[in-house]
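Repro:
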Amino acid sequence: MEVNTEWIIREIIESDNKELENVLSSVMIEFNVPKMGTALSDPELKKMSYAYNHSKSIYFVIERGGKIFGGAGISPLKKSKENICELQKMYFLSDARGIGLGKKMINRCIEKARKYKFDKCYIETMYNMKSAQKLYLSEGFNYIDKPIGNTGHSSCPVWMIKHL
């Protein structure tokens, strides 16, 4: 039996939850993300398929050979009066970094954000995630000087926005 070794970006399914939790947690720990005030403490980390199973939300995983290497999604920005989505939980294992998958993932998420008719896309990240910030800038995100909405991620000190 031949195993598919191509990279696949697909929507999350319930059976992905445990493996995805492990992948996302391990990447956040690798980058010394604080346990409190970040996605590492989000309760939905344990059941990602349920967290994105509502209107104007979607989460994608990256898979190769039946193994999950990361993911990203969008959802309406919490506690915002504006029509803004948030690019959320975009983390990849090292094997999936630096080969163009981040750009593909952002494009897939932005395509859905436009389909859902959001005006802007917001993201919060960490200072030390320089490669991610470089990618976001190359995809049209710009730095802003304060957070918007209320994601509960008080330990994320870098905020960016993209006009759709």
